[in-house]
Structure formats: C-alpha cells, structure tokens
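Hey,

The postdoc asked me to send both predictions to you directly instead of through the lab channel. I've kept everything plain text so nothing gets mangled by the mail client. Protein one:
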Amino acid sequence: IEPEIVITCGDYTLIKDKDYSVSYSNNINPGIATATITTLGDFYKGEFTVDFIIREYIESLDIDVITPVVGEKPQNTIIAGDNYTAEISWKPHENPFTFNTIYTANIIVTPADTHCFNQNTTADGFNVKYNSDGTLTLTKEFAATAMAKIISLTPPNNVILTEYENNTDNIFQLLPDNIAIESENGINSLPISWEL
C-alpha cells in the first residue's frame, strides 16, 4: 500500500521523482507503515519519514447478548476481540429485568487502530448502523419477558373467585386491576394489587 504524498514549499508543489523520491516500509500488512521521503534537485537536501496506518476491513462481527430474563441483571459487558471494543446499554434501563417488558440492546462498537468498518459490515441478529466517526451501532430487540407467575391466590372466607384467568403454565396473560367476587351479598368487584 502506497498512499499518495503531496509536498509543498510555499506556493510550489514538489514533483515526485524530480524534487523528491519516496520509499515505503512495513506497508503490506495492517499496522503502522512508514514512508521515507528524500529531497532531490535544488531543494534542501535531506530525508524525513512519515508514519501512516494500514487498517484491515472487518466484514462481520460475532457478538453474543444474553436474552433478558425476569429477575436477572442486564448484561453490561461484551466480550470483544483484539480488533474492536464494544459497550452495551439497554432500553428501558431496568435492573433487574422485570415482567412482560420488551427490552432493546444497543451496542456501540469501536474498531482498533489497525481495523475499520464500513456500511457493509454485518452482525448476525442485529440491525447495524455505520456511524460517521467509524463506529457501528448494533441494535437488537428481544421478545417481551415472561408474564407474572401466580404462586398462590387465596380468596377471603365465603368468597368465590369468578375471574381468575390463567393458562396451563399458571401464568397470567393479563394482570387485572380487580377481580369479580361472589359472596352472600352478590357479585362485587374487589380491587387488587400485585407483588411481583
């Protein structure tokens, strides 16, 4: 890899191979390469070097995010390779994860100095956005966490619950604000609250 070099002296732009020559070293593999410029002709005689970075393009990322589970703490670190670092955040930001909530993981991925991303970089299972600063934003929305599981529900004496609705897994599909109860005085609505 031999990037073009432009050298000026005042308003004059030096001409390669007439006013100066260039040689390159360490310019094949990703890393820090060096251009050595040697002046020729009537200009100041001398030699100087300029370092530049050769970056390797990252085609795809392999990033794992643990699916949110009720009661668990959100994942706050990403295992990254030598060629990038990553930071994760969650929306909504709740710790621990709560019932019946859709969570979205947002990950900012920054390439190492010797690597780079572009608009074609992919990450399995994520929406990928290439940012103008060379980073990537990865987004993944997870299915809603589990509904509340009813451990026990004991009505008062002489009360029959007529709207206690749950599925075969004993998990409520909807947590009501009240339950209809039947007692000696007829059917009434009893306000309830839930501790999850």
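Protein two:
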Amino acid sequence: IHTEKLVLKMTWCAPIQTLFTCGGLSSGMIIAWKVTIEGQNNTLFCRKIATLKGHSDVVTDLLSVVKMRGTHVDFCCLVSCSLDKKVIVWDTETYTIKGKRTGHKRGVRSLGLVSGTNDGCLVLSSGFDSVVLLWEVGGLADKPLMRLTGHIAPVVQARMHSDGRLVSVDDLCIIKWWHVGSNFSDNNNAECIQTV
C-alpha cells in the first residue's frame, strides 16, 4: 500500500479492523484504512475508507482507546492530538468528532493510555507547554481531570507506571516520577516524588 503522504504516526483499532494514520507537514487530517484478509492465499487488503478532519495543524499522535467488558467492546474511540493545542476524541463508527479537549497552551506532542482504571477511559497528553494533562475520553467532560506541572521544557511523553504512579520525560532529558493516587482530580495534590 502506498499512502501517498508521509506517515508520522499510526494506531490499530482491533474491534473495527481499522488502521488510522496521520502525517504530512501541514496536514491536520487523519486517514482511516479498513484492513481485511481475503482469498485462499490470505491476501492482505487495505483500503482508504475515511478522512477525519478536525485539526488545524499537524497531527502529532494517535491513540486507539478500547474498553472491554469480558469479550464485549464496552467503549471504543480514537484520540488524536495536534500542534493546534487540541486533543480530539473521534467516534470510530461514524468517523466524526465526539468531543474536543482543550487545556494546553501550546501544541500537544503525545498521548498515553492509562490502563488499569475501572471508572473510565483515561488518557494522558504531553505538551510543548511543559505540562501533562489527564483526560477522561469516555464521557462529555471537556476539561482535564488533572494537570501536572513542574517540567521546564516541552514534555516528550508521560506514562502511567502503576496505580497512582506516573513517569514523564521532557526535551532536557529530565525524568519525573509522580504520585497521583487514585482520585484523579486537580484537588488530589499530585506530587513529583523524584526527579532524575
């Protein structure tokens, strides 16, 4: 398959057998590709099925969020972030915007899934504004649940390490360990417990 444009990021959404890609220097678009295996030779086919438009600048990361209940898909969405400062939640059936999350003062660099939570679909966003934000993407809340400040350079990535602990790294190679607890809110007094 030739995508015609530079692919910077991709994510696989298994429940709908769809690959999402983004790229290009000025494109704010995301392409959805339906992936099927057909014929006796099990030939892989990939066809473009949708173009998702919602960002006004380069899309910097994509994340497929799937919440299972047993063998049943309870929730499924695509989350994207961009240099336009937005995090967008997409419906993976209609390829339309379910909601926009705003809170970064500069572009958003990367996304990370918070696993092991029972009360929602949580995503971390790392920004060029040196901030990490925690979002609930399964509901209607458009403001971050938690804001982690303390980096002095753009944050490259943030990942949940275990229940209540998070790690983030910035452009100056500073790694911060955070204790955020299990009550995800700005009132929780999340604290940086170590800087490396």
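Summary for protein two, as requested: The first strand starts at residue 9 and ends at 13.

Thanks,
C.
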